[in-house]
Amino acid sequence: MELPDLTPYLGQITFGGLAGYAVGYALKKVGRLLAIALGLLFVALQLLAQAGYVEVDWTRIQRDVEPLLQQPGLKSLWERLVATLTYNLPFGASFVGGLVLGLRAG
């Protein structure tokens, strides 16, 4: 049995993997910046609340944010992100593999 010639697809696979890695790396860096920004916002709010400038209703914030952080919501978000990033790409499988590696490396 003769194996098919995959030479024409090597460029697509390579580009897909590299593009996925770059996107994953960038997403992780942006995620870290977002986490830092949210942390600094929390500290600023706490300082303002302690000084008496603002009053924060943390119970209401928790009630509004909690549904967004449930597992099915996060899974759906990940699936939508991957579907958007791989839309109309012939090298989608290698892109997703590169994306996962980029997220781990970032």
Automatic annotation (TrEMBL):
Belongs to the FUN14 family. It holds the Pfam family FUN14. This is FUN14 domain-containing protein. The chain crosses the membrane at residues 6-27, 34-53, 81-103. Keywords: Membrane, Transmembrane, Transmembrane helix. It comes from Thermus composti. The keyword Membrane applies. It is found in: Membrane.
